Amino acid sequence: MIPTLTTERLELRAFTEADFETWAGIVADPEVARYIGGVRDRMQAWLRIAAYLGHWQLRGYGQWAVVERDSGRLVGRSGLWFPEGWPELEVGWTFARSAWGNGYATEAARAAVEWGRTELGLRRIASAIAPGNTRSIAVAERLGMRFDRKAVLPPDDEVLVYAMAL
Ligand SMILES: CC(C)(COP(=O)(O)OP(=O)(O)OC[C@H]1O[C@@H](n2cnc3c(N)ncnc32)[C@H](O)[C@@H]1OP(=O)(O)O)[C@@H](O)C(=O)NCCC(=O)NCCS
Known about the structure:
The chain is α+β, with helices and mostly antiparallel strands. The chain has a single domain (about 5-120), classed as Aminopeptidase, CATH 3.40.630. It is about 35% helix and about 30% strand. The strands form 2 sheets. It has a 5-stranded antiparallel β-sheet with strand order 1-2-3-4-5, with helices on both faces. Helix 1 crosses helix 3. The longest helix has 18 residues, at about 40-60. Bound molecules: coenzyme A.
């Protein structure tokens, strides 16, 4: 049910149990976690993978595990995300610190957005970003999004919503 997408350098595929150790390491890095709610312990990391997979089951779309094709290494996650309470359907991204600076987030998110446009018929996409997360804002802008409005993520995190028409 979860499709696999292939880009020039990346594969976007369903998370598996085998991704756990690498994923737990990625989200235990304070620099990665700084603008996404702080470092996650192992159980939180495991539950996040479960939520990514469950989101596909409930909504019919969701987050992919992103693998560097050359090395086979899990480098991050990207995809569509719209849990209860979210301002609107967004495209999101989190990558291992060691994978930053390669254009991977933009490449993966572009494929995810295109999948949403063609498979779901999306006509708009957004991204909710913490103020100060300049690297993430740069990804949104590279994709073509522009600042749209401020919003609140439950329980009370103020975010900037970037968005674009598709
Ligand atoms: C947000 C995040 C994914 C951005 O990662 P990133 O690597 O900076 O973003 P991109 O993948 O678009 O890469 C862009 C960089 O790669 C460089 N690059 C190198 N080779 C490239 C190539 N072949 N193609 C495109 N860009 C390339 C670009 O020049 C740019 O570098 P710069 O930052 O020095 O200008 C990353 O910082 C992250 O995971 N943060 C923690 C989690 C998080 O906050 N997520 C967002 C929640 S809203």
